[in-house]
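A common beginner's mistake is to predict each chain separately and then try to dock the pieces by hand. The better habit, illustrated here, is to supply every component at once so that their relative placement is modeled jointly.
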Amino acid sequence: MSASMTQRHCRPGSLALLAGVVIAAAGCTSADASRLGSTAEAASKVYVPPGSYDEFYAFMSGGFDGQVGVYGLPSGRLLKHVPVFSQSAENGWGYSEQTKPMLATSYGQVPWDDAHHPQLSQTAGVPDGRWLFINGNNTPRIARLDLTRFETEEILEIPNSAGNHSSPFVTENNEYVVAGTRFSVPTPQRDVSIEDYKEAFDGVLTFARVDSVTGHMTIAFQIRLPAFDYDLSHAGKGPSHGWSFFTSYNTEEANTKLEVNASQKDKDYVAAINWKQAEQCVAQGKATTEPGRYAHNLMGDDGIARTEWGSSVKMLTPAACPGLAYYLPTPKSPHGVDVDPTGEFIVAGGKLATVIPVHSFSKMQRAIADKAFAGEDHGIPVLKYEAVVAGEVQNPGLGPLHTEFDGKGYAYTSMFLSSEIVKWSLKDYKVVDRAPTYYSIGHLMIPGGDSRKPWGKYVLALNKITKDRYLPTGPELSQSAQLYDISGDRMKLLLDFPTIGEPHYAQALPASMIKDRQLKMYPLMENKDPYAAKSEKATRVERKGNAVHVMMTSVRSHFMPDKIEGIRVGDSVYFHLTNLEQDWDVPHGFAVLGANNSELLMMPGQTRTLAWVPTRVGIFPFYCTDFCSALHQEMQGYIRVSARDAKVALKWNSPSYAAAEKHEADDHDDDDEHGSH
Amino acid sequence: MTRTSRLVVALASLLLLALYVAPLWRIELIAPQYPEGLGLRIWVNQISGLKPNDLNSINGLNHYIGMRAIDPEAIPELRLMPRLIAAAVVVGLLVALAGRRWLLYLWAGVFTLGAVAGLADFWKWGYDYGHQLDPHAAIKVPGMSYQPPLIGSKQLLNFHATSWPDIGGWIAIAALGLVLAAAVLEWRRARAMRTGPVAAARPLGVLA
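With all components supplied together, the output reads:
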């Protein structure tokens, strides 16, 4: 087994060619069998007995699936798939009337995204278990999830951005989440030739303020920088608190064939942004107000999402705000930028670099004070490499991307091309251990590993390619995560598990921080949805022109009402389903024959609304889709749909009907009276 | 009555005041689907869930077997009991104040009868809930009734039901115990006093 692993590892398929072009010196790494430990030892370390809990919650981005996967560590068990940017037909997220506004953007309804980097909120530089932020890369957005409900509460669109990759990367007390554009575009957007890239395009960074109580995000200011690609970011901490660091590649400012044209310079940059300086400049009125339309979607206390529209932003430029931005030369096309727990070291992963540069924050401060500049780029001071670099990790491997820290003086860097994790010392920048990954690791994650206090027990590799690791499933294979024990001197591979979507970055925290704060149900009596029926007596059906509102309840094991007549083809029928249960883990579902959107899941005490436009005459059953009880299969009902011009009266079977019928009869009497006048 | 007996009877009365803030009885239900359990607390004036929504949940589950919903509003005892307890406190204090032995005997008897009647009434409610089932119920198990135990445990379909006095119940039992103990002590003291001189004299008599 070890022989075949070593073999595979030394010949990473077609990538070997690319690796060979970049550098031949590093060679392949050896994987010896001893690091695996015995199977029994590894198994016992990840075994969580039935009924027991995992030690950590891990939040893994879904990548192209636009969601967040919540896994338990060390078992690797999937606990929840939380819908964020992408509609989820399973529970109606983005389909139900209450949640549709969450996906509103200035481009219209964008029901999907590419979600990359989850970030736990922090207090004093340590995950505090309040919120999880995650970026939407395609249609620039940042979402905030509440960690008592594991639901998305807020989505803020980022204007003047065209690919929100270097985001959200919180500052040490959630002062800001950031959003740097990966794709530079003209700002404000206008019709120009792509050839005019260097003159007309900008790269904009956004700082969104996070309310310390509610978590609500507001765009505080934006910074217009040269038209580079702003790739990743991390905030300073401790001594470097007040700064945020962004990698920027394509400093060549190429607008086509970037794989060659943006790989010409030996060094690109880490952009160091002094956001405290930015705050001062904004306060001094040095920012200009520029147009920028964006949606700000917020889930209300009533469980209904609403969109507020923003129309302008405060824009800063380095020229108007000296001291705002500096460039740290960094080899080569850097990807990740990671700040160690002390806040002193800034590690950049130059994906085409032969070394891992480690910048020093204190040296950077001195270099700024001494004006140790190598020159300027677009008016922004470029610090001398020697004046800021603390050291270089030599021969780390191929394709360094991201670095996490164990809090014990070591850094762990993912190597995409040589497909391994490299452990090195922050004291002397010497590699002390390396472990293969299967295959092509992207991000890696140590619980709290980008914070001031890592829980340095495990490192999780998030791999891009699985090939032969699991039972094959046709051309499309899952991505994979691999868990390594890092409690000893050497990394030990413990577990290998497939993931949903493509996890890019991940975050984790001890389960004890949030597990006892979980909401079990929504208090029915506090339900503020205007269409909620909080008891079976309150259920009713109302017609307003072509709109029919059905205020329906679900409780084990029936709907009220469960017979509705008088619906006509072309009506807009709104099923407002209130789950009357006040019992933990008793959701009900709702589905109607031929629904063109989705089903619904209603949590106990919650109201959710599904819109339905019947297109043909007939009898339409509806039923509960979430196996709720012994009589779940009996939880069903019928709707009669009549022709557009039919005279079938609205009728339903619930206690309110008799009253409504009487009321209607009275109305008719009134009509007659009016008619006689 | 001795000073001690009067104090004990007064203390027993005052203990009963605790019933206004402490539940009398608790019924706990455990099922495979309810590892965290469901339960009821019975107070002098209300029935509540052990957890905020337990009463609702229990009523929801009971509808499968056709048991009628437990509606505290429909149980007149819950309006009567606070008054009876208040009367018991006053009567007990008066007995202690009066210090008459025969009043104590009477009070001990009435208190005991009241307690027995209360338990019998509680059993009757349990019996009615458990037996008066809707003939159209979804779940009908021939020969099965669902009366919870008065004290102890019982398996009712998938639920394991346990019924036991709660804090208030134990306090009431203690109060009754104190009154009975006072009555017994008084009775023995009285007998000793009545027969005391004779008994004391008897050995002498024997000797004589």
